[in-house]
Amino acid sequence: MPVGRRVAQWRARRRMTQQVLADRLGKSKSWVDKVERGVRALDRVSVIEDVAEVLRVDPAVLIGRTAAPPAVTAAVDGIDAVRAALARHDLSPGPPALRPIPAPAELDRRVGHAWLTYQHADYPYLLRLLPDLLGDARRTGHDEAGVLVQVYRLTASVLVKVGEPDLAWLAADRAMTAAGGDPLRAAVAAIPLGQALRALGRGRLAHAATVTAARWIAPPAPQKAPADRLSVLGTLLLEAALAAATCGDAHRVRTLTDRAADLAEQVGDGHDHHRTTFGPTTVALARVAVAVDLGDVAEAVARHEEVTRRGGWARLPAGHRAAHLIDAARAYLLLGDLDRAGRLLVEADGIAPAETRARRAARTVIAGVVRGGPAGAGVTRLASALGIG
After folding, report:
1. Is 295 part of a structural domain of the chain?
2. What is the pTM of this model?
């Protein structure tokens, strides 16, 4: 697809007119129109970066390439091993005599440890754990606890984080298959499916998948439903809202987040039902993320400042807090507060470095801060670590 058509698509997603995009770039509306029609070529890297910054996408997205930051590139060996484990499908990863089938309690312990590793954003270490965990989970046979769904879901989630959405989609699809006819397990598996589809730029498909899964488990009387089911339902509604935000559907975003907020009040903070950490604080974080995607940056900043004063903020896993700070930094950058944006990225990097260095959004913010003028020492060091000059 020509670069100009990608610019037009992302401009429409961000609900910008050609005039608004032109004003933010310091260009004429005629210039934007010619770029989008292919009459004028975008052949200067600096201009592509400026357009990408205004549209809030990675420059690689506009030119049709994938560009992984150094921290992600360093994990390629781990990704290759996970890819090989997924390709083996039902085959044992080693001779039975050398790799006995683990006892259910031991496998549960390992899965729990892997989830904690994910929540603390130690993605390179988790990628090293997953190949054996995938093989052992497949070889357990009768799976009353749904361990295989959990492992495939975990695999898909971390692959989204490290920029491998295609492979994440495969793992999420395997999770859906492993769920069989169990509605709750299938709903749990739909969470990473929505994440993978959204990462692939398939916002409408992500919305459809998560809303459909939410219907599978929606109780007739939510007030009487168990908290674990409400947590999965609420998480699906938030994933659907995030997907709707990428499509610019503000009305649907509000409807979905409001429904999730009602469920969260019943569940409360401080729980981790089905590894969702769903609760009022989680909903508040999602409201910030969707506000940024919809271009409501003033609202995003206000909500960020409110949520970090909540009691539940400090109890969130490190990966969740770092991811939120990246979203908030995007909002500050769009408001023109470069200093605050940079300080939030440095703070996020101190909490969970792999989260900061895996997300392209973080690179976009740092690049914007560095280009905007003299940056502090912390921002400069982070820019160097991310390969941003």
Report:
1. no
2. 0.79
